[in-house]
Design goal:
The structure is a single chain. By secondary structure, the protein is an alpha+beta fold. It has two domains: 3-88, Nuclear Transport Factor 2, Chain: A (Roll); 94-205, no CATH class. It contains nine helices and seven strands. Strands 1-2-3 form a three-stranded antiparallel sheet, with no helix packed on it. The longest helix is centred in the middle third of the chain and has 17 residues, at 94-110. The protein is elongated. The two termini are 35 Å apart. 15% of the residues are buried. The structure holds zinc ion (ZN). Zinc ion is lined by residues 126, 128-129, 131, 197-198, 200-201.
């Protein structure tokens, strides 16, 4: 099947595929010839020998249905069909997606250390307006982005592209490299200071003036 020739542009193919997938109910087997052909164009996943293809709930994104598959080795994993389409038209931004995933994994790790305990230990009152609800834990003194930048500088991590992630049992992204994960958690927890802010005061405070030196990535 020549998708490029048949559909001319990404928009046409996006609409066509989106309309097909909309018709499938949760967990219904997908045997549509276009979908089965399309996924073979995934830029990094080899999807030639899959066992099943279904729309399933994805906890990480608010329980919306996503296209997922299983193989003999992989119980279930999602496929970005839009990424397959971008790849067909030479516009895949898989590197950007991977960088986004790595950043999310790093964030998840940092949430599991002292930050979590700070929340449990403290009386959860906003330190600006004394409100007792909608409390968030904020990085004070040194912003999170700066801690991450410094960690990357000290460990010569110029790019996040090659770092591998996976989804754990709670659909949370994690790093495959457990040594790096531990190193990052320890580094983050050594540097981080926290304060309780209510949602409103946190928004008012806004993001810090610090701009990441890796901004271009
Ligand atoms: Zn407040």
């Amino acid at each position: 099947m020549n998708f490029r020739k048949e559909f001319k542009c990404m928009k046409n193919l996006n609409i066509f595929i989106g309309n097909i997938l909309k018709e499938y109910k949760e967990n219904e087997d997908i045997d549509n010839i276009y979908i089965k052909e399309l996924i073979k164009y995934h830029p990094i996943k080899d999807l030639h020998n899959i066992k099943w293809l279904r729309m399933k709930k994805q906890k990480r994104y608010y329980n919306t249905l996503s296209l997922q598959y299983g193989t003999d080795d992989i119980e279930d994993d999602d496929i970005s069909w839009k990424e397959c389409i971008r790849n067909i038209f030479g516009k895949s931004n898989i590197n950007q997606n991977n960088i986004r995933d790595v950043k999310e994994a790093l964030r998840n790790i940092s949430n599991s250390g002292t930050k979590k305990f700070y929340k449990l230990k403290n009386n959860n009152m906003c330190c600006i307006c004394n409100k007792l609800y909608d409390i968030e834990i904020d990085h004070k003194d040194i912003p999170y982005i700066k801690i991450l930048d410094n960690f990357r500088i000290e460990n010569n991590i110029d790019t996040l592209i090659n770092i591998e992630t996976y989804e754990d049992n709670n659909d949370m992204l994690q790093l495959k490299d457990k040594t790096l994960e531990y190193k990052w958690l320890k580094y983050h927890d050594d540097k981080a200071n926290y304060q309780c802010l209510c949602k409103k005061c946190n928004i008012k405070k806004g993001s810090s003036k610090y701009k990441s030196i890796y901004k271009k990535e």
